[in-house]
Amino acid sequence: MSAMISGLAAVLVVILGLVGHRVYVRERRCQVPLDDQRWILDGLDYLLRHLGGTEALRARAPFELPVEFDGGQGALSAEQAAELFSLVKTQMGIAHWPCTLLREASVFEANPALARAQAVYYADDEDVIINYRPEAEDDPRELVCIFAHELSHYILDQIEEEGPGGEARDEELTDLCAILTGFGAYTSDAALRPVVDDGTRLRDVLRNPREIRLSKLAYMSQSAMAFALAVVAGLRNDRKAAYRRLEIAPRVEFWRATHQIYAHWLDEIERLMEIDAYDVREQQVVLKRQPPGRAAPEAPKKKRRRRRRPLRSQPER
Question: Where is this region: Disordered (predicted)?
Answer without folding.
Answer: 288-317
